[in-house]
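Protocol step 6 of 9: fold each sequence in the batch and record its structure tokens directly after the sequence line. For illustration, a two-sequence batch is reproduced in full.

Sequence one:
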Amino acid sequence: MAEYNEDAYKRARQSVITHSCPFERALLSRCVSCARSKKLNLAEREAIACGDPEARESCLAFYRAVHENAQFALKIAPGTPWPFGKEIRAQCGGVRGLAVTQGGVGDETCDVAATVLQALSAAGSIDALPYSEIMRAVVHYEPRKRRG
């Protein structure tokens, strides 16, 4: 069995994906959706790119704010890598929690970019979002259990 060349994969990914999606893991796990995302198959893997660079900036700002606010809630020391399970909780719970604060349904039909843009339009800035409510959704989000 041939080994994967991870460096070659990363180079190929960078050449194909101009604008990465900050919520790629959430989209790949199908806990949320995004009409602006582009699904790509690369080296027998799925990847998600963002089709709207302007919306991506808002999503990236929300992604960073969720991570900053979730460190305490998920018991992660600043500057340490995020384990996959906690990353999924932050991404899925964060977007779903934001959707609920905007009067939407916090489920897999929640559109990431549309939710973030709607929330920013209503709140006025990334700092004005209701993070205490969003963090409740992050803490309570349960990722799918593995089969087997």
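Sequence two, same batch, same settings:
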Amino acid sequence: MRHALWMLALAALLVACGEKPQTGGVTKRDASAYSGTGKAFVDGGWKQGDQASWESHLKARTQQGQNDYNRIN
């Protein structure tokens, strides 16, 4: 019985060490957020790939919807 427990513990340790990376074989580099997705569903006035336009839209969204002081007053 004791011998079986040791073998089970050893087997569990060996299984944990043998895990393979789960990359799927494809490595993809992340793009910057302002580069867009290439789809037509974007906010009006924002051009995909324009960093200044992205930052101005992000600032406006933050002030209008996420600033509790502005929403309450």
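Proceed to step 7 once all outputs are recorded. Observation for sequence two: Residues 48-73 form one domain.
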